[in-house]
């Protein structure tokens, strides 16, 4: 819009050009709405007062203005880490020369201007939601289109060094909160079959109703506020203790040997550690059968014989069972 010139005039000739195509229109009002323009393009607009004869024109006045760019298309998050988010998008229809990217965690807002259709925003806090706005900017560096927003979470921080205790049927886990923010923790475990999943807001979990002497694959995962974005899992392999061997008995004795047998414990075990002592000297042997004959003993001496089930890792042992016998 504009003000009437001093003196008289009866109409105005408005001419506009994008540098390639020039168009014009005559109006009698002191304003005009020029439509069907291309987004993000600079137009030189000339307004000239015309006298009552319809042909005598004054000197034109010019204003140069960019149309607003269109909205960027197909914005998407391509990668997230605990401290960065990568975003890309397609150019908007029409023209634009740069993009203003603004991000906020709800407290602190930052921005950056880029000319590429992608950005990696770094130095972010783990497990936090960020609203990321991308706005196309015209060639004058100030005329902006409508922004497009995505709101991803950064990955929660990693869980390091959890501790555990175990018995024959349960495993107790404890861990510390990772850096940043966490909504909850997801604990998953299996022993080669169906997976069990449990969510907790605590920094501990007790896995119960487990099988004795069995190896469990365990994952502890921090989950962000959207209940979808997860940190890298911390993986552990923990073996429950085997149960006690059953029905241990002495089957034969001689002057120099004792034969012992027992039944397998409930659950799983892969071998047995047999230890015997006369009160002075202690010896042991690992066997896979449920029986042993201990030789080279001293006649007439009492021996305490302990049998302990050992799990498949070769080191996790259950509680021992003892029988005492004289040669």
UniProtKB/TrEMBL annotation:
The keyword tRNA-binding does not apply. Coiled coil: none annotated. CDD domains: FN3. SUPFAM superfamilies: Fibronectin type III (SSF49265). It comes from the Eukaryota. The keyword Repeat applies. Residues 1-70, 71-157, 158-243, 244-327 form the Fibronectin type-III domain. Keywords: Repeat. InterPro entries: ECM_Regulatory_Proteins, FN3_dom, FN3_sf, Ig-like_fold. This is Receptor-type tyrosine-protein phosphatase eta-like. It comes from Notothenia coriiceps (black rockcod).
